[in-house]
């Protein structure tokens, strides 16, 4: 079942901006703040309001990791895959978490509680490998500890 999207919030956001394409990033940020993600129908409202091709907007959304085209779970689980984290075992951590949550990278669990992401770098190389769950950072994590961390959020 497709959930109907209320476009009024998007229309109100767009009215605050007047510079067309140069306002695209702030508009997308405000839309994502309002909806929790950027619904596809809203992209067409933005395109019309800012006089930009929808393809350009989709290009921007898919280029920047901060923007989501699907609703994210209550908890976003991020595993850093930057060089320092990779060298210290982030690949195994990622594998363990994917198996535990039964998801692929970028997917959300069926119950909507978790979205799993691999990120290029979280800027905490001295704490490698890093795992972030719901905004809480965990450093020097082993694959066993990573599973325990996620299970803690599954229970609570």
Topology as a string of helices (H) and strands (E): HHHHEHHEEEH
Helix fraction by DSSP (H/I, runs of at least 4): 40-55%
Relative strand content: 5-15%
Q: Main β-sheet, in a few words?
A: 4 strands, mixed
Rg over CA atoms: 18 Å
Shape: elongated
Q: What's the arrangement of strands in the largest beta sheet? A: 2-1-3-4
Number of helices: 7
Output the structural class: alpha+beta
Count of individual beta strands: 4
Indicate the mean pLDDT: 92
Q: pLDDT below 50 for ≥5 consecutive residues: which ranges?
A: none
- End-to-end CA span: 29 Å
At a glance:
By secondary structure, this protein is α+β, with helices and mostly antiparallel strands. The chain has helices spanning 8-15, 24-35, 40-50, 54-63, 83-87, 90-101, 143-155; strands spanning 75-80, 114-119, 131-133, 136-138.
Task: Kindly list the characteristics that best describe this protein.
single chain, about 160 residues, alpha+beta, about 10% strand, elongated
Could you please describe the fold and organization of this structure?
The protein is an alpha+beta fold and 156 residues long. It has helices spanning 8-15, 24-35, 40-50, 54-63, 83-87, 90-101, 143-155, and strands spanning 75-80, 114-119, 131-133, 136-138. It has a four-stranded mixed β-sheet with strand order 2-1-3-4, covered by helices on one side. A hairpin with a 2-residue loop joins strand 3 (131-133) and strand 4 (136-138). Helix 1 packs parallel to helix 3 (40-50). The longest helix has 13 residues, at 143-155. The chain is elongated and about 50 Å long.
């Amino acid at each position: 079942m497709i959930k109907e999207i209320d476009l009024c919030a998007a229309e109100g956001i767009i009215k605050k901006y007047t510079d067309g394409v140069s306002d695209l990033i702030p508009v997308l940020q405000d839309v994502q703040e309002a909806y929790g993600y950027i619904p596809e129908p809203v992209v067409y409202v933005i395109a019309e309001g800012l006089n930009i091709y929808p393809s350009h907007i989709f290009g921007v959304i898919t280029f920047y990791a901060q923007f989501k085209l699907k609703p994210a779970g209550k908890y976003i689980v991020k595993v850093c895959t930057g060089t320092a984290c990779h060298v210290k075992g982030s690949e195994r951590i990622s594998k363990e978490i994917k198996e535990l949550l039964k998801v692929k990278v970028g997917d959300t669990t069926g119950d909507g509680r978790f979205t799993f992401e691999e990120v290029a770098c979280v800027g905490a190389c001295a704490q490698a490998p890093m795992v972030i769950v719901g905004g809480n950072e965990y450093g020097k994590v082993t694959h066993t500890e990573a599973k325990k961390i996620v299970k803690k959020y599954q229970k609570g």
